[in-house]
Every structure is written in structure tokens, then in C-alpha cells.
Fold these 2 entries.
Entry 1:
Amino acid sequence: MKTPPEPSRNSAPRNPLQRRDILKTLGLGAAGAAAAAVLPAGGEAQAMESPQEQVKTRYRETEHVKRFYALNRL
């Protein structure tokens, strides 16, 4: 039974940039870009409603709403 030859000590050094390292770097870069896209740009959001619109009634119990509630009782 033959044993495989030992690598010589004078052989060229391995490429430090291996395939797995490249894939890890690409994955981390993509995750960082996605996180940066989700972060808010700054400042608080302002309401687009005027003071008159903020106090107006929004919910009205009309006939079709009453019928919906009547039909969906348990």
C-alpha cells in the first residue's frame, strides 16, 4: 500500500482568499446593505392632516355596518 507523497515545504503558499471567505464576505455585505436600506433617514415623520381633519369623526355606524355586526354575532 502506497502512502501519498508529503507536500514539499518549498511549495507555493495557498491563496489566502478562499471560496468560502468570498462567499462570507458577499453575504455579510448583502446583509449590511439590506440593514442600511431599512434604517430611517432621520427626523420624525410629520402628520399630513390639518387640525380640522384631526378632529373630524372617522367612524360612522351606518346601516350596512349595523347589518355586518348583526350577521357576524356569535
Note: The chain has a mean pLDDT of 77.
Entry 2:
Amino acid sequence: MSVIVPTFNRAYCLARTLDSALAQTYAEIEVLVVDDGSTDDTRAMIESRYRNDSRIRYIHQVNGGVAKARNTGIAAATGAFVALLDSDDVWRPWKIELQVLCMQAFPEIVMVWTDMEGMDPSGRIFDKAYIRTMYSAYQFFPEGTLFPEAYPLEGIAPSLQAVVQGAKLHKGYIFSQMIMGNLVHTSTVLLRRECLDQVKGFNEALRYSGEDYDFHLRTCRAGPVGFIDLAAIQYQRGMPDRLTRAEYHIHTATNFLNTVKPFIDNARAEINLPQSMIDVMLADAYLWIGELQVDMDDDANARKNLIFSMRHRFFQPRAWLFYLACFLPHKVRAWLRGQYRMIKAQIHPGISHS
């Protein structure tokens, strides 16, 4: 079993992540640390802390982005199962054992992922079941409706009965549902090697964000998948070097649309969703891009994307307001934006709105 950990200048938190992988109750494990051109003490930390642990394999490459780093790890991995772990997240010790048992019980499953706890920079857990909060596409699928099958984990993993009480493995083919948005968190997944060979890894052109959704969408097209409704990782939020920072939001929004649109255009017959649902998703996607472009004063492109949004769903007061804002002088727009944020802050005190 191979674990791929891409990292870039994360010496300050990487050891905690690696220790959680090495502490797995599943014994047959290798951990490939793919250093994407770090300039901090990553190499020295690895050599000092793990020099006597043969399970750690350190690979250094010229900086090429997280997608390239993961692909480097996939190419070097030797396990029949491959797990992905971001360099600031932490696994529960039973994570891999539970996922392998699920995949052994259902050989048709190509990937299985889990829920996660949300953890802030101080280490405080602020949400014990965070995946439905983080990934908004879950809103389209109330609990119990995303997958056609569910199996109690007590019967699949009797050795972990104290951990899995009441939790289930949900199973099915959900390529259509994934069109509505990402449902999978990368640090929670375990994949079969043959699935990786079929999916062909991460799209390295998606340098700053969106590579996860593209990869998981293609994986869910490859066959049935499974979701464990139990938090098996602690997901780190709030670090200053995360790719979810505000300056990357436009990349996230445009990469999402660029990922999903070709499937809608070229594989519509495979997508078992009503056109009304797809129109809602596309309207939201174009609106997302348009709003960000208004904030960037990119008025021409903002108007274009807001019009596309309203073509998919005409009655959208928010889209119309942003469209009209494109014609206002910059100073007026800045003042209105400030008033809007002040009102939101008064309605939701203590919440930061950037």
C-alpha cells in the first residue's frame, strides 16, 4: 500500500502528517514524500527524523505544482492500493485498514473516501463531520440519497467495531452526481492501482486549483465508488500557504467550469440528471466567475459570464445586481462593496468577509 504526500515548504507541519501515516494499523505501507522544490528545511527534517525508517521514500523535483508532484508519486508507487495525503492533514490510525477492508469486501469499488473533521491552526476541532459543509454539491443530495446502496461497517470491519459503531459504507456509481460539483476530499481517498492506470493521474495544466475535482470526476466515471460516513482524517484549515487562499479563487472558479463543461457537451448521454439541475449548476458556475471578475474590475468578462449565468437561470436578482454593478464608476462600486460587507458583518458578527 502506497501513500503519496506532495509537499512544498511545509517542514513546519509535515512531520505530524507523516507520523499519522506511519502510525497506521495496516502494516504493509510505503510513504512517498514528493518534495516539489522546497526551499525550507524539508529535506533536512526528513533525513534527520526518518533516516532509519525504510517505509519513507523521499523524492525531490523542480517545482511544478501539486498535480505534478502527485503524478510523480503515482509513477513511483509500488502498492496495489494508493492513498493521497496532503502535507498538513492528519489521519486516524485505523483509516487505511478500514478502507482496505471495504475494498476487499467489494472488489468492484475503484475508490473509497471518508468524512473528515475540520481543524483550525491551533489544533481545535471545529466540525466533526465537515465534508458536507466544505463541499457545497452535497446540498443537491440530502443524506441517504447520493448512493443507491449502504452497508453497516460492523459487518465489513468487525476488528474495528469500537470505531465504526453505527457508521456505513455507501456504494454506487455516482458520475452523474459528481457533475454537480466535487464530493470527494483528496486526503481521505484510497484507490486501486488499476483505477489510477485507467484514469491517468492528475491534470498538470490545472496548476493552482481544480486538479482535485477533475481527477475525482474522472475516477467516478471509471466505476462504482464508496463513501464511509465516518471522519477518518483531520483536515487542516486556515494555514497561510494553502491554495484555497483568496487570490486563487478565480482559478478555482474557472477551472471548475473548464472541467465540467466538456463532460456536459460531450458525454450528456452518460449524465443521468434532469436538464434543470444542470442549468442550476451552470448558472451558479458562471455567476461565481462573474462575481469574482466584478471584484477584480474585469468588467467585460464579468458581463459576459453573468449573461451566461442568466441564460441558464433567468430570475437571479444577485446576478442582475452584479451585472448592473459592471456599469458603475469604480469609486461608487467600491463604496457599495464596503457597505455590503459592513451589513453582512453586522448580521453575522465575528465572521470575516473578505
Note: The two ends are 41 Å apart (CA to CA).
